[in-house]
Specification:
homotetramer, Dihydrodipicolinate Reductase, domain 2, globular, 36% helix, Rossmann fold
């Protein structure tokens, strides 16, 4: 794998590397880690890379690697730059025949999203999007339970993701993460919704198996002077008219990454929160609630295939993240071997999730701008 | 105390009696427990009442008791009938000089609400409304902590109350609770919002110390054929423009009475849920979260005054309910004794909470009827 | 009911009264609340008692009441004095024909225990012991689940009760509770074990349905200068050789009344803790764990009969305590009515629990005194 | 790194590899994965190893690698075989100049333990023991908090580790893990205590900062026909006479790896359980309990240095395990670079933990064999 972005000091780049390392199935062989060649070089050195494969720019990397013999060149590209630097390297990589794994959201705006989708369709190359939270085994289990029909028709979806790290205006200091995430020229139209709302909405759709079709939002800039939203709530209608409520915030002081999803059907419901990621609560009206756990023998094939240890060995965020890398790498190998990849069990978020996620950002922002009205989501 | 409603088989009437009994400060001396004199008689017998003070109607009770010598007659009236039979006995009791304690919501519609308010103002008699959840010691503590300014200015309020008991259309069977609560001629304009949304909103206001000024709702009748809403969500704006989100449901299969409130300020936040009522979570961005507990020495006077045992002896719903009765009785005694009642410590919800709660019902229903638009709350 | 002990400022006496009040089935009609007649008088006044029935001594109370007409005299006696003043009033009450409810432990030493047992057997009068924790609905459920055989043969019992309130030597200040509980002349041979270990052991036996037959203890006086044990652990062998481990402490700084019981059988196990009293965790090796809850429709008759509200209305310590009073009163009524009392459903701890609990105190203390050896428990 | 053991199908070998991979600091370059050369070969292939460095035996591996040029040969050896095959490869590796990382317990018996210790002392080479649980950031924090003196002198240590996986006699089927762990010729003198009791005791010592000096145990073979203990409890005295209680079990049906430690001092206490590994509960008698969390800014340097992501990204078992590998590798690099390794912050369990752990096994077993008497622990 070759990495674009993720230079020394970056948060998400390091996470991508840990995730890629974990299973010993992926090797980082090259990178263009920063716009600053010196930083890129320094990063490559710390990662024990061959100097000759630490590049000054993603353009140089993609073009040079494309020219290497197939057995030597990188197998795919991982893009971990801020949102406004997603599309260009992704398009270039796809054009040069490299599959792409890309941090969410897919890109900066709809135009870019459509361009990437077109390129993916044109090249037929796989693209993965790191909606990490659907990588958790108990989220796989939740999806399978809903799909099994145990709960009957789905009636309500609740999605939330409160954080507190932007409770103060830390973008005014030199907090790297905060600066680009609150800057419309780098993040795009939305702050909190784009950064974490997309995760929560994706989770609601993934577990319920239903797409969001329209939204009515209340998006807020709560910290004075902030340029993008830092708090967002939305009513969301899913296919078939199922109501959903989403609330995300980056100013909920004291909250970590408390993403939580609850889905209710006619006969029962389920609840999952990242605070206790190896537990899935399954609730019934006339029977004891049940505690489903990662690594047990009774969970679905999808849940089992996406955990690494038996029950009682807590798995966390990096393992969930690694599942995307592992399943993506497995898909690439399956393609090489000419065999079918089982996407029900070894799934990962892809281009359609990415485009849809971008459409949701558009719709959520538009709804508030137009006075909190219903806006259809069109991918 | 004399009771109106609460005949054999009623749920909330029995709860009121348990709550009134607990502290040994209130004695049930008479009742008109049912429209059916035989049921009323039977109930009185089971409650060890003097037969002569078990009445055939609330009218008879109020008028007869008013005629007894002051030392013998009931001290106040407790009204535990369905919503459409709140106003008439309340007005009659007040007119005859009896203070009133009344199950929430205050009454059937705004007209009644205003009539009761006028009568209260005219007579100067105390009226208590059983918004039980604000009776919990840790909710008192939450209010005091917010009031202390520890969290800085309040920025967000989240209120939820999911239940699952109406996931099926049980009003079609002979479930007494379900039938009147889903019947517009008995409940009023709203089902779920009126029954439990009013509790959640009251809690949000009580803890934040801020009133809700406008709402944008999404109210749903999810179970086919149901006559009133069984699921309701709302964006709610509090004084000063503070955003809130409320979600309540009676079709969240598998949920008990999972009322939860979260309030966030500039520096920290708090969370309480009835599932773990003696715990108040206090959250900070740069320090360990704290677990405040009922019965400890470090909580506020208000929290201490509203619990009965030292930390480690779980108190529950009945104790919270009993706090309303206890504080109301204490207020009546203070009036008799001509001393001041400390409403900051020994508080209970009153007529203004009741009228405001009714206005919120109106606004929430109107918002959805008009197409999910913002509606101002006018008491 | 007439009460002995529980004067103004006492902790457990007030709890007994709250518990007795709750269900409106028991009326406090008289009392000898203190050795000090003035305190007794003052207490009676605060409790709205008829002055003529507030007595100067328990002797006076029992003898006077015994002389009243049957319809007027107290129905039973409640003894809430320190341990060394249990036996004398209990014996006197029984001799005068009064059933007795008595705070645990039963009494001061074995001699007294046997004397009380003999008197109970001789008179045939009911005696209840307030081992409160077995009054919790979910503990009733636990017992029924074990009894049902669902878990197979029981293999292990874990009992614990950590508290922190004696972490400092507060008996040196004027803390009334601490002084008598750490004073061998008032408490008896044991401090922590006698006070809370007896509860934990009783809970283990109640849930498992097995009696403890021998013990090997490690009893400690951890706070320097303390006269009785403040920390006690024991290996305990139950009938059939089932091993148990008990750990209790009054110096576990920061702990409330964290009594917890875990019982494991061949196929599964269960766990309950007072911190979350309305939840019973049921655990299985090859299936999701289950969460049994107070007030649900699926729990046993015993669990249902000992709760007052539907699921979702937290019940606590006072409700558990009240179950003992309620079931005891129901037993007395059944005797009066000449009908059978269903002790499987409406049970309460009685004389045999009391004597056995005292034997356990003896054995636990003896084991440590003799060098941590196994000691048989002989009732 | 070269690995000994861990062939296809082994549990702990795979875990060691995941842990070693995570940080991208260690590369598996060779292995002798099984006594069966074909299995070893197959494992090597699946791990993308160079065929020439997949060996038929650990002897062959150590000797061959020792002959390679320094820049090519493995840097250290990881031993993940059953207990009876720890000492021989460890001694051989040390003799050939290779540092060793070894799964716990250190070895099969005291004789071997002393031999390894001597060899470590003689060669001066680092040896790490994978007492995984002390690798958790919140356990590091716990140790630092105790060390800081915040809690005052330590008074009590509670250690437990219930599991349920051996509730049935699965060693009779072909469960590989169960067979060797219940076989005295492979596990050594103890089953449950040796396997998980050693972890619990190590945790108690690590957090309290105190060594266990004597034990009185109750060790049981609960499943009929089992050859080694599957349940063990012990009173344990720590330095300074501090009492501890340890309970571990492999027949607690329904339990996962519920290792928990509680330590109490004069002023407060702490509690940690693997079920919620990123939380450390800190308890006080007169102040709200506190929730310390992994990845926060307020925890100690040791806790921060042993986590990889900011608060809100759950870390789990593999991350804790990886900390041992990471810190060990950092130590080896420090030695190479001639700089000091900060063992307070980047610590890992070593030879003394291993020998002491073996002594504890001896003492625990001896205590029960001699009739549950106190036995001194002598390393």
């Amino acid at each position: 794998m070759g990495m674009i972005g993720g230079g020394v000091g970056a948060f998400i780049g390091a996470v991508h590397r840990l995730a890629a390392n974990l299973d010993g199935q992926i090797e980082l062989v090259c990178g263009a880690f920063s716009r600053d060649p010196a930083t890129s070089k320094q990063t490559g050195k710390e990662l024990f890379l061959d100097e000759s494969r630490v590049y000054d720019s993603f353009k140089q990397m993609i073009e040079t690697e494309a020219g290497l013999p197939e057995s030597q060149r990188m197998d795919f590209v991982s893009i971990v730059t801020p949102n406004h630097v997603h599309a260009e390297p992704a398009l270039l990589a796809l054009e040069h025949g490299f599959p792409v794994i890309i941090d969410k959201p897919l890109c900066f705006n709809m135009e870019e999203a459509y361009a990437i989708r077109n390129k993916v369709n044109e090249t037929g190359l796989p693209l993965a999007l790191t909606h990490t939270y659907t990588g958790y085994p108990m989220i796989k289990e939740a999806r399978q339970l809903v799909k099994s029909g145990k709960f009957g028709a789905i009636r309500k979806v609740m999605m939330e993701y409160p954080q507190g790290w932007l409770a103060e205006k830390i973008e005014d200091s030199d907090q790297k993460q905060a600066s680009w995430r609150t800057d419309p020229s780098k993040s795009g139209k939305s702050g909190a919704y784009g950064d974490i709302g997309t995760h929560a909405a994706n989770m609601g759709e993934y577990v319920s198996g239903l797409q969001i079709t329209k939204v009515l939002s209340m998006v807020k800039k709560i910290v004075p002077g902030r340029l993008l939203d830092d708090d967002a709530s939305a009513f969301m209608e899913f296919e078939g008219g199922v109501p959903g409520v989403l609330t995300v915030s980056q100013v909920s002081a004291g909250e970590e990454n408390a993403i939580r999803v609850r889905v209710y059907g006619e006969k029962g419901g389920l609840e999952w929160t990242q605070r206790d990621p190896n537990t899935l609560l399954v609730k019934w009206n006339d029977a004891p609630d049940e505690i489903y756990r990662t690594g047990t023998g009774y969970v679905s094939e999808a849940a089992q295939a996406n955990s690494r240890t038996p029950a009682g060995h807590p798995e966390g965020y990096l393992e969930a993240f690694a599942n995307i890398y592992k399943n993506f790498a497995m898909h690439l190998r399956a393609i090489d071997a000419g065999i079918t990849h089982n996407m029900d069990v070894y799934d990962y978020p892809g281009i359609e999730d990415g485009v849809h996620g971008m459409s949701l950002v558009e719709a959520v922002i538009e709804s508030t701008e137009k006075g909190n009205i219903w806006v259809n989501v069109t991918d």
